[in-house]
Amino acid sequence: MALLTGKRVTHQCKNFEVFLSFSGEDTRFGFTGYLYQALDRNGFNTFIDDKLTRGENISKELLKIIENSMISIIIFSENYAFSTWCLDELVKIIECKKNDQLVVLPIFYNVDPSDVRNQKGKFGKALAIHEEKFKDNKKIQSWRGALYEAASISGWHYKQCYPESHFIQDIVKEVSNARFNCSPLFVARYPVGIDYRVKAMLLDIESNDAYVVGIYGPGGIGKTTITKAIFNRIYDRFEGFCYLENVKEQSMTNDGIIKLQETLLFEISGDRNLKVYNKYKGINIIKKRLCCKRILLVIDDVDNLEQIENLLGESDWFAYGSKIIITTRDKQLLSSFGKGHSTHEVQELNNDEALKLFSMCAFHRNEPMAGYWELAEQFIRYGEGLPLVLKIMGADLCGRPKCEWKSALDQYKEIPHKDIQKKLKRSFDGLGETEQDIFLDIACFFKGLDKDYVVDILEGCNLFPVYGIQKLLDKCLIIVDRFNKLMMHGLIQQMGWEIVRQESPKYPKKRSRIWCYEDAVSVLTEDEGSDEIQGIMLCSSEPIKKQFKVGFSKMKNLRLLIVRNVHIFGDLKYLPNSLRLLDWSEYPSSSLPSTFCPQKIIALKMPQSHIRLDKLLKSLQSKTLKYMDFRSCEYIMKLPDLSMSTPNLKELLLSDCINLVEVHQSVGRLDKLVVWDLKGCFKLQLLPDCLMMKSLEHFNVLYCSKLKKFPNIHPEMKSLKYLEMGETSISVLPPSFGNLTRLRTILFGSYDHFLHLPSSIYELRHLSDLGLFGTVIFPKDFRYIFPSLIKLTLSFFEIRSEVDFILTSCCTHTLKYLYIYNSNVVTLPERIINFTRLHTLHIEGCKLLQKIPSLPQSITKVHVSNCLSLVSNSSSELSKQFGEMLQSKNFSDISVHGTHWFHEHETKYLNSDGDECSGLWLSPSDFSVHVTEFHKHETKYLNSDLEDTRCGYEIVVPGNMIPFEHQSVGSSISFSVVLEFHTLALCFAFGQPLGKTYSYICDVHIAINGFKRVLKTQLFEEMNFDHLWFYYIPWRSLQQLFKDLNLGRLGSTNLVEVLCRISCWTSGNRKLPPIIRRCGVHVIQSWGTQMPRDIFSLGEEMWRDIHSLGDISSLVEEMRTMRYYISAFLEDISSLGEEMRRDISSLGIFAWRRYVAPHIVTRRRHIFTRVRDAARLHPAILPTPHH
After folding, report:
1. Parallel/antiparallel/unpaired status of strands 295-302 and 240-244
2. Is the Cβ–Cβ distance between 716 and 693 less than 8 Å?
3. At what angle do helices 121-134 and 137-151 cross, to 10 degrees?
4. The dihedral of CA 357, 358, 361, 367: what is its sign?
5. Is 415 exposed, middle or buried (0-12, 13-18, 19+ CB in 10 A)?
6. What span, in angstroms and rounded, lies between the C-alpha atoms of 997 and 1075?
7. Which of 338, 355, 824, 964 is most exposed by smallest CB count within 10 Å?
8. What percent of the chain is modeled with pLDDT above 70?
């Protein structure tokens, strides 16, 4: 009997479940007829060709029926091979099997399988007759190959000693299993954003040998949905497969574990009689019965290792090539598999995907209905890309009027939907008690704060945060961003808030934490606290002045107190001694309550307060205190001795204490201090004579304009990394300054004073960021460089010779960033071309600058603005270099002279949406808010070297004439491309009134076939003249931007529109806004201009091979996922040159037949490496042939 393994067919809609291939002469009215009736009785939609007209050649109709069948049963009988019709059927059946379109089950009815396989006996005789008759060796060989392939498949061998009725029953039973195995899993009603995520993960899964693949992420992010889609794509490649869902829930009881084990055994072995009586025996049975199989196993939703071990014991139990896919909310769980695993984090939906999914659920269409757009976008912002939340909200709001939508949104923000809360809370329920406390503290008080600071606070609360925070990271409940800030998804934070609210829904005073302003006011003003309260945050979005008394007398267990933006009048009588954090901006009194003697306080933060340090430190003696923040406290005039009262201080912030004059000598010996900020203390005159602070890393005396002497540096002070001392009155640095050997960043100099540097400055061999302000005099007694210098900034340098010395003698090939502002620079040194790592050059306000020499090939960003004397040749050279980088030598020169200045009638350029491109005028203060948001938004696109990951090249230069042939007047331009993704070079010409200063923010949008995306947001500050902005975006960035869209088959035309719009601006001239005069585009093909013609010359037979496949869209999609194999090649293909193109053409038809065509036909993934190695072709450039 045949054992049906877990081999499945490709999941697509099938018209028939079973196709019968047989010789009518032998079995139509006997065995085959009985088998057909048995299948029909058991509900199988079975095809039998008793109504088709037979002839010499098989009909196209029958071939289509075979393709659209799920299972084919081939009944080999004595006269089967004498029928050419049967043999043609067989060839088609085997072809579909190879393409994973069909499950094949052979039956050898009164014939020996070896006779079929080796074409002996009657099968050999039949083939000999066909050879004599047809003289078509190719057709005969295809028949022989199909017979051999079919007879090699495990099947049934019927002999007359066994009752036919029993034999047929066994076949029907196995076909039933096959039908079950051929049914793919339901993925999602609206699988938005699934496809490209699945492709990205499959690329890794298929390209490495890891047994275990972990997919992790927070609840509701789509792990299960993505895993089901992956399962459907690959299960038919394995001998056995099984998808086990909700494993965590089912593993709560022994019976549940046993049921999971039995399901695994049955789905892979097919044995319904296998029973497991306890879970420990079940583990051994799984090992024994499945160890030799190459299987695919999905274990969905686990949260501890035991749940996995109950099902697979060790990950290497199964045969080589097996894949175990595990979904979990706990990343750490996956590390237990050592090196034999790979992990994938599921990302949230982007805004476009979220809008589409929400719209499908709420409106049953791809976008919101008219009048609902603004509301829909508010729900999208609330959902923050979690598919579960978007689906629940969309279904809940479907068909409801707008008034109910608004009410629902308000409710969601206060109280989350019960289904959302239930799903997200599962991660919280799996935490220990201390981890739950840490999570709630972060959700209520510490989101967005520095991780190390929060760890110190929570350690003072005995919550063991080093371990606990890592647990939260593993559970995907929090993340630590690139700036070491603790961040949390908004809905996960709201889940934490709701947990606290449920402690006492109606009485805030009985909750453990209070963060809502209204709740905090009611508890504090009425002194309604309780011992349950551990933390209070009284924070207002707008400054509030209140004349009320606050009471803490009933809060004996208060650990955390935060008061911001609320000015309370009157003295405070009591504070709990249990406080670990006291963060009170604008504290109303000059001292703390006399009864306040905290023994475990970690942080004391009282900026903008009336506090007097001498009074405070007399009553506060704390060895646990690590953080003191007294910024902008105008009553602090002297920093007293801190060595006894706060010996373990790590951070001391005193910036903008405008009356601080003197610092006690003992402060210079605080060996635990890491950060010391005195910025803006412009009356400060006396620092300690010597600094011997072993731990100090950050020291800031910027804008301490009366400070004349810099302290001596003790030889043991080795930790200082960041020093800012610009705009002081210091004119000489001590020779001991060279002891700061680990210094990485320095900003010093003054607009009013020369600063003379000692020779020991050259001892700073780790210096990577040097900022010089005003005029700084370097020692010239010997020539030296800073060997690690990466960034150099020069501002307001007056002495030209000093500028020349710095640029020629103090810089080296390590330099990456060069910024020059408002300095006497005439030209840059010619040797700048040797700075082979330089990628950013920014020059602004250098009125004497005349020439910029040739720049190194490493350059990616050039910004030159407000440089009146810059000659047109330099701008033209930049344009030429830009063109060379784009492999286009025919750019016209940039025009600087003869500039067409702005006129009033030009202010009304309109974009394609009908909005004025001049944007909204803002006051300088309001504009600065937008600038802050711009920098915050753009930070996420920067890599570790602060390079924009979206952009390949960018320059800003004076001028207004675009050097591209394809350009248009105004702020938008449209064009068509044959393929989806090209590298684009864009240029925008900005205009403004002469003699006025403007700052503005512009947005660049790109739309392909109507699908719009934000390409780039750019800030231009203090611009005085017309200028050009070139922006080069590689095809990879465009592909990433539109990764969720299917932009059509190869050869199709795609319409592209680029739009640039000034969103907001500021200037003293409110009447005349800046404008976008023109925009241009240059399209770069990644393979060069000759490559498409070379492809067409490959020959007609090659194209026939491709198009014999019919619709190759699925192949194209698969090929596009194989960037792993050819990503490096894509960057170099355009530079291969004429010789390489001749090599490609010379491969001819032999290479196509030998290497390429067979792999396309079988759709094997190694086609991509063969194409690369043999024909050097990229799949994305295979157009529909028109020759």
Report:
1. parallel
2. no
3. 160
4. negative
5. middle
6. 13
7. 338
8. 81
Which residue has tokens 């969103």?
A: 1063
**Residues making up the chain, counted from first to last:** 1187
Question: b/e for 218-236, b at 16 or more Cβ within 10 A?
Answer: bbbbbbbbbbbbbbbbbbb
Task: List the strands of the sheet with 212-216, edge to edge.
Answer: 240-244, 295-302, 323-328, 212-216, 341-345
| Sequence-separated contacts (24+) of 1032-1036 with Cβ below 8 Å | 1032/882, 1032/885, 1032/886, 1032/951, 1032/952, 1032/953, 1032/954, 1032/983, 1032/984, 1032/985, 1032/986, 1033/950, 1033/951, 1033/952, 1033/983, 1033/984, 1033/986, 1034/952, 1034/983, 1035/981, 1035/982, 1035/983, 1035/1086, 1036/981
Residue 674 near residue 699 (C-beta atoms within 8 A): no
Whose CA is closest to 70, among 45, 87, 48, 90? 45
Residue with tokens 């109303």: 588
| Residues ≥6 apart with Cβ < 8 Å to 707 | 684, 685, 687, 701, 728, 729, 730
Q: CB of 698 within 8 A of CB of 719?
A: no
Residue type, 528: E
CA gap 330, 284 in Å, rounded: 27
Distance in angstroms (rounded) separating the CA atoms of residues 78 and 116: 10
Q: Which two tokens stand for residue 398?
A: 């479907």
What CA–CA distance (Å, rounded) separates 1095 from 1085?
14
Given the structure tokens 């010379």, which residue do they identify? 1146
Instruction: Render pLDDT for 950-982 as a digit per residue (tens, 0 to 9).
Output: 666 888 988 888 888 889 999 999 988 876 667
Three-state secondary structure call for residue 526? coil
CB 447 within 8 A of CB 587: no
Please report the DSSP string for 585-625 in residue order.
Answer: TT-SSSS--TT---SS--EEE-TT----HHHHHHH---SS-
Q: Write out pLDDT tens, residues 178-209.
A: 665 566 788 888 889 888 888 888 887 777 67
What the block records as the tokens of 1149 is 């038809």
Q: What is the pLDDT of residue 1124?
A: 34
Rounded to 5°, the CA angle 587-592-598 comes to 115
User: Smallest Cα–Cα separation from 748: which of 760, 756, 740?
Assistant: 756
The continuous run of DSSP H or E covering 582 comes out as strand 581-584
pLDDT higher than threshold 90 for residue 569: no
Task: Read off the pLDDT of residues 35-68 as tens digits, 9 standing for 90 and up.
Answer: 999 998 888 889 987 655 555 567 788 888 888 8
Which residues make Cβ contacts (< 8 Å) with residue 809, sequence separation at least 6? 778, 783, 784, 785
Residue in 89, 149, 353, 802 annotated catalytic: 89
DSSP-based three-state secondary structure for 197? helix
The DSSP symbol for 1171 reads: I
Single pTM value for the model: 0.74
Tokens of 954: 């960018």
Residue 1019: what are its φ and ψ, rounded to 5°?
-110, 130
Residues sharing a CB contact under 8 Å with residue 762, sequence separation 6 or more, in sequence order: 738, 779, 784, 786
HSE at residue 583, side-chain half, CA atoms within 13 A, is 20
697 flagged as catalytic? no
- The C-alpha atoms of residue 454 and residue 446 are separated, in whole angstroms, by 7
Q: Which amino acid is at 42?
A: N
The amino acid that residue 273 corresponds to is N
Q: What is the token pair recorded at 566?
A: 């609320």
Task: Please list, in sequence order, all residues whose beta carbon lies within 8 angstroms of the beta carbon of residue 831, skipping any fewer than 6 positions away.
Answer: 808
Cα angle value 914/919/922 (rounded, 5°): 155
Of the candidates 355, 404, 352, 345, the one whose C-alpha atom is nearest the C-alpha of residue 378 is: 355
